[in-house]
Design a protein that fits this description.
Strand content of chain B: 25-35%
Number of strands of chain B: 10
Largest sheet of chain A: 6 strands, mixed, barrel
Radius of gyration of chain B: 17 Å
Helix content of chain A: 55-70%
Strand order of the largest sheet of chain A: 2-3-8-5-7-6
Shape of chain B: globular
Order of helices and strands of chain B: EEEHEEHEHHHEHEHEE
Helix content of chain B: 25-40%
Largest interface: A-B, 22 and 29 residues
Strand content of chain A: 15-25%
Oligomer: heterodimer
Order of helices and strands of chain A: HHEHHEEHEHEHEEHEHEHEHHHHEHEHHH
Structural class of chain B: alpha/beta
Structural class of chain A: alpha+beta
Number of strands of chain A: 12
Largest sheet of chain B: 6 strands, mixed
Distance between the termini of chain A: 26 Å
Number of helices of chain A: 18
């Protein structure tokens, strides 16, 4: 009967009850939507970071993390790659050489960042092949020097150089105090949506670029290991350090290798927590207000119920029950609404290329279309939290109701 | 043993520096099966005495006992339980729970007592029938006349078979015909079922119907007559 009474009491003031439950629903829906979006973008960024900037474990020369000095190189990178590959049977090992240079066409010469990669393994982890808008990815076979001298460039860079697919460009890089150069043909043109990446970034085969550094033995800037799961095994970094760590190399987990991405994510999460705290406060105050008003209007009625024998604690429980019902209805509606609003974000996503152009994250060529994911566990936790907020918001009115003296309450008009 | 025993009970209210003495020390006993009225002008202490007997308030001085239980020694929950189990209340302005039907209002105190749903539903139906409201079980207070609402209040008060029913000006808001019906109903319940009634009233018809009339004035009992 108490539950029935609580429901009927809420229906006595349908507009106010609807507004209070609506506040719970709207707040929860916003949190669910934001969580699904934030976690979706976070996982996407994590995935992109794995693919484009590093792996779960990154091996690079000591000092490179701070200086980004292109002269710092790992020697015998192939041996390091083999040792890393032995750590995880289903992992992918990539090698990259990151150097700065000049790319020249018959029309123009432009300063560029060269990422020299192994086309095969790189294609397995990088999004770049999928970003090609013209031409093709770098050949991964052993077809000889002519076919190996291929380069993939961004569309903005192609415009600056005035070149297209199969046009010739010349890459010049400083190496050990000298200038060396090699001609390449444009294999493909990509567009990431990140203007700085598209205008400044070129990808060439590692083996070919290595020939521009004849004084070094199988050089590379980074050797990275990626595993299929988003989160790497906890002990992977320790095993990697044991396998390939030397005085000349630093072995980093990806968070250390891309601190900007981690910081951006933490800032994002911090801001979201701030918003969620405000939403939570609004919900609690909404419930509190409704129930206090309701208590004011029903003081005499409470007095009657107490007079005929209802215990003070049970009067409080009735009020709490009303708050809980509001919370339950709001939580169910908000959870459903949040999932409904998430659907287009899961299927279509949102294009953040403009934002990414303004604020690039390290040299991560991330997917500019960010999609949400259904994070059922967290969403359910939010629903429980909002339900708890509604119940919490009813605590003070319940306490006040329980403290009513029947004699005074019966005199209330 | 008396059902109600009031000994030298006084009730003071401090209003800033002023002390209001609503009840100045009264003695009263009530036996099972009585049909008694407290009468007196406004401010004489009728409602205060009724509240003390009903455990809605505690005396500033003296004792009030119900079935031998000193109400002043009970905490709030204890007094709630005492009201629930031993006292029936009828108020001046009906005071039914508006969201509950007549049936549910009658069941309400039994629900608080933990009476099983089937049993309390049966008892509530029988009680409503005994106060002439058979067929109106599903009506809410807003769908009942004033007299019918007061009958539901009577049904709620007697359904648990309390030691005493305390009625505070039960006829004040009723027209003459309805009032006469209600008085007759309460007399009938008193005579046929032995329900003990104590009214506070200044309605001559209730006083006429009462078998014992206790008069109060300025917080003191000035006469106690049994007809």
């Amino acid at each position: 009967m108490l539950i029935s009474m609580a429901m009927r009491n809420l229906l006595r003031r349908p507009v106010q009850s609807l507004l209070a439950a609506g506040a719970v629903a709207a707040g929860l829906a916003a949190c669910v939507w934001m969580t699904n979006f934030q976690d979706g973008s976070w996982i996407s960024m994590l995935d992109d970071s794995m693919r484009a900037a590093a792996g779960h474990v990154v091996v690079q020369p000591v000092g490179y993390q701070e200086s980004k000095d292109a002269d710092l190189m790992l020697e015998d990178s192939g041996a390091i790659a083999s040792k890393l590959a032995a750590l995880e049977s289903d992992g992918v090992v990539i090698r990259r050489m990151l150097v700065n240079g000049l790319l020249a066409s018959s029309n123009n010469t432009v300063g560029v960042a060269i990422s020299a990669v192994e086309p095969g393994p790189e294609a397995a982890v990088s999004r770049m092949p999928s970003k090609l808008i013209e031409g093709e990815w770098l050949p991964s076979g052993e077809d000889g020097e002519r076919t190996q001298r291929r380069v993939v460039i961004g569309d903005e860079l192609a415009k600056k150089l005035g070149v297209g697919v199969e046009d010739k460009v010349v890459l010049t890089i400083p190496a050990d105090g000298e200038i060396t150069a090699l001609p390449f043909r444009v294999a493909g043109i990509f567009r990431t949506g990140n203007t700085r990446t598209d205008s400044f970034y070129a990808i060439a085969p590692l083996r070919v670029v290595q020939t521009l550094l004849p004084g070094r033995s199988d050089p590379a800037t980074q050797v990275a290991l990626s595993v299929p799961a988003i989160e790497a095994p906890a002990d992977l970094i320790d095993r990697a350090r044991a396998a390939v760590g030397t005085a000349d190399t630093e072995v980093l987990i990806w968070q250390e290798a891309i601190p900007d991405a981690v910081t951006a994510s933490e800032l994002d999460k911090g801001f979201a927590m701030f918003i969620w705290a405000i939403l939570g406060a609004i919900v609690s105050v909404g419930i509190l207000n409704l129930l206090l008003m309701s208590l004011f209007h029903r003081t005499r009625e409470m007095g009657v119920m107490m007079a005929v024998g209802m215990r003070p604690a049970d009067v409080g429980k009735l009020i709490m029950l009303e708050g809980a019902l509001l919370g339950l209805v709001g939580a169910i509606a908000g959870f459903g609404l949040g999932q409904l609003l998430t659907i287009p974000m899961v299927t279509t996503g949102i294009d953040l290329s403009q934002m990414q152009s303004a604020a690039p994250v390290s040299n991560v060529a991330i997917d500019t279309v960010i999609k949400s994911r259904f994070i059922w566990g967290k969403d359910l936790m939010w629903a429980l939290w909002f339900f708890a907020l509604a119940v919490g918001g009813s605590a003070w009115p319940a306490l006040r109701a329980g403290r009513l003296e029947p004699v005074q309450a019966l005199r209330h008009q | 043993m008396s059902i109600v025993s009031v000994q030298n009970a006084a009730r003071y209210y401090d209003d800033g520096p002023v002390r209001v003495e609503a009840l100045k020390g009264v003695d009263l006993t009530l036996e099972a099966g009585e049909f008694a009225a407290l009468m007196g002008p406004s401010g004489s202490g009728k409602t205060t005495l009724l509240n003390l007997i009903g455990g809605l308030d505690t005396p500033s001085k003296g004792t009030v006992a119900l079935d031998g239980q000193d109400i002043g020694t009970l905490d709030r929950t204890g007094r709630s339980d005492l009201r629930r189990d031993r006292i029936g209340f009828i108020f001046q302005s009906y005071n039914l729970v508006p969201v509950l039907t007549a049936q549910e209002n009658t069941e309400f105190v039994m629900m608080l007592q933990g009476v099983p749903p089937k049993e309390r539903a049966q008892r509530a139906r029988e009680t409503l029938a005994s106060v002439g409201l058979a067929g109106m079980e599903d009506r809410r207070p807003s769908e009942l006349s004033g007299g019918q609402q007061q009958r539901v209040a009577v049904a709620r008060a007697i359904a648990t078979k309390p030691a005493v029913v305390l009625a505070d000006e039960p006829t004040a808001n009723l027209d003459s015909e309805t009032k006469a019906d209600l008085i007759a109903l309460m007399r009938k319940l008193n005579e046929e079922q032995g329900v003990t009634f104590l009214f506070s009233t200044h309605d001559p018809d209730v006083i006429e119907a009462a078998r014992r009339v206790v008069r109060l004035k300025d917080g003191l009992i000035v006469s106690d007559e049994t007809k």
